[in-house]
Specification:
Number of strands: 6
Distance between the termini: 50 Å
CATH topology of the largest domain: Outer membrane efflux proteins (OEP)
CATH class of the largest domain: Mainly Alpha
CATH architecture of the largest domain: Up-down Bundle
Helix content: 55-70%
Structural class: alpha+beta
Strand order of the largest sheet: 2-3-5-6
């Protein structure tokens, strides 16, 4: 390496040594603004004070949803859902943005070739005669490369990296929400199919009852009032069948949308009673484990780190900016002798800008960066508080599941017995048919409510809890 080349490369070597400097404040993770224990239990226990199910932190979704059909349905959604696809594309975009900013840390070297031909008038020529001048050059050059002595470019690179990481966490958040939404829609469809089957069974029973009362009316054993009351229950059952048929169709359409493709018929649930064990029970774990692993909380922290790094760039703006422009190559006044001996050429042009007066613009920019960091801190703390509340709500719902279902099952059984007794009393002429109608309505309502609570509390509450505490593993 000759002295000319050394003169060009030495500043670049100094630059590489100084590229890791930064004036950003040292980042320290804030303490979570939430209690160390979940409400109603010890730090690692649920509202009932006991530990049940597997620890949620770090488990993959395949361990939450144990039903084979539901697993296939979730896998189909992960491959086809458009919201998840958009989130993945956002990651690619943010990764490219980060690479652009990272490239600013290293010099951009370009191959340069130029040529020109110019006629100089004799009045301007040093020889007093008109002449034609030719000039050709070729080489490698670095243009306006900033020496990052005070870490401005490094801080901007760090900010771009944290924004990229936040985008990755956003995709994980979308995925966890998608998995939970597929499971919830799956259970809703199962519940509505069971309610539709109950409505159909009720319609069949009402048709039989109406036919019996019709014959009793024809022989004078029943009044016209009994017949009309039986007709109202028959029409109400028909309306319920039509209504639940619509709900089932809408549930299937919603499931197709969230999956992103038509769902094969063999993957659809048959009835809720067959799918109550499709979701694994879980234990919440410690708040610090759950909350600080949630991707939405991690995304908020990444953004906080990014704004913290941006303060370093704002601080560096108060100091001189040094840029380098240099080339090394060959030059000649004839193209044929461009690479001949003695045609070597180089140029080196450093440039320095020292801030003196800007009417407070840099101070204002620094203030904006600091306020942005404070806003990001508040959003990070709010994300933790929101996550804590979601988990606590899920645990509160889970803590009363068995009690509510036991009570509803007892109510349904008692109503069924009441219906049988009222039917027997009517057939023996002790009570009017109005008592039978009341018991039928009560039984039908209790059966529908039992299905709803089974879907909401046994299935839905578990899905909600999984969505609240999941860290998003197993997404690949």
């Amino acid at each position: 390496m000759n002295a000319k080349t050394t003169g060009l490369c030495l500043p670049l070597a100094v630059l590489l040594c100084l590229g890791g400097c930064t004036m950003a404040p040292r980042y320290v993770r804030p303490d979570p603004p939430v209690p160390a224990a979940w409400p109603g239990g010890q730090p690692d226990q649920g509202p009932n004070g006991g530990q049940s199910g597997k620890e949620a932190a770090g488990l993959a979704w395949q361990e939450f949803f144990v039903d084979e059909h539901l697993q296939k349905l979730i896998a189909l959604a992960l491959a086809n859902n458009r919201d998840l696809r958009i989130a993945a594309l956002n990651i690619e975009r943010s990764r490219a943005q980060y690479r652009i900013q990272r490239a600013e840390l290293l010099p951009q070297i370009d191959a340069i070739g130029a040529g020109g031909k110019q006629r100089i008038a004799k009045t301007l020529s040093s020889t007093g005669q008109a002449e034609t001048v030719e000039q050709y050059s070729a080489g490698l050059g670095v243009s306006a490369y900033e020496l990052d002595l005070f870490g401005r470019v490094q801080s901007l690179k760090d900010q771009a990296l944290e924004q990229h990481l936040a985008t990755e966490q956003a995709r994980r958040t979308v995925q966890i929400s998608l998995v939970a939404e597929v499971a919830a829609n799956y259970l809703n469809l199962a519940a509505d199919r069971e309610r539709l089957q109950l409505a159909r069974d009720t319609l069949t029973a009402q048709q039989t009852t109406h036919q019996l009362i019709q014959r009793r009316f024809e022989v004078g054993a029943a009044s016209e009032l009994d017949l009309r009351q039986a007709q109202t229950r028959l029409d109400a059952a028909r309306a319920d069948v039509a209504r639940y048929t619509t709900l089932v169709a809408q549930d299937e359409n919603g499931l197709n949308l969230v999956v992103g493709a038509p769902v094969p018929a063999e993957l659809l649930p048959k009835a809720l009673s067959e799918n109550l064990t499709a979701v694994q029970d879980i234990a919440p774990g410690l708040p610090s484990e759950v909350l600080l692993r949630r991707p939405d909380v991690l995304a908020a922290e990444n953004l906080l780190k990014g704004f913290n790094a941006n303060i370093g760039a704002a601080r560096a703006a108060f100091f001189p900016r040094i840029t380098l422009t240099g080339t090394v190559g060959v030059g000649s006044d004839e193209l044929s002798t461009l690479f001949a001996s003695g045609s070597g050429a180089w140029a080196f042009a450093p440039n320095i800008v020292l801030p003196i007066f800007d009417s407070g613009s840099r101070w204002a920019s620094l203030k904006v960066a600091e306020v942005d960091r404070d806003i990001a801190l508040a959003r990070y703390e709010k994300a933790i508080q929101t996550a804590f509340r979601e988990v606590a709500d899920a645990l509160a719902r889970r803590g009363t599941i068995d009690e509510q279902l036991t009570a509803q099952q007892s109510l349904t059984d008692a109503t069924a017995m009441s219906h049988r007794l009222s039917q027997a009393r009517y057939e023996k002429g002790v009570d009017s048919y109005l008592a039978v109608l009341d018991s039928q309505r009560s039984l039908y309502g209790a059966q529908q409510e039992l299905i709803i609570q089974s879907a909401r509390w046994r299935g839905g509450s578990r899905v909600c809890a999984i969505h609240s505490v999941s860290s998003g593993r197993g997404e690949e």
